[in-house]
Amino acid sequence: MFSHLPTVQYEGPDTDNLLAFRWYQPERVVAGRPMADWFRFACAYWHSFCGSGADPFGEPTHLFPWLSIADPLERARAKADAAFEMMQKLQLKYYCFHDVDAVDFGDDVLENERRLAGITSYLQQKQAETGIELLWGTANLFSHRRYMNGAATNPDFAVLTHAAAQVKAALDATIALGGHNYVFWGGREGYMSLLNTDMKREKEHLAMFLHKAKDYARAQGFKGTFFIEPKPCEPSKHQYDYDCETVIGFLRQYDLLADFKLNIEVNHATLAGHTFQHELQVAADAGLLGSMDANRGDYQNGWDTDQFPNNLNELTEAMLVILEAGGFAGGGINFDAKIRRNSTDVEDLLYAHIGGMDAFARSLLIADRVLRESPYAGWRRQRYASFDEGAGRQFEQGQLGLADLRNLAVAHGEPALRSGKQEYLELLINRYI
Ligand code: XUL
Ligand code: CO
Question: What is the pTM of this model?
Answer without folding.
Answer: 0.97
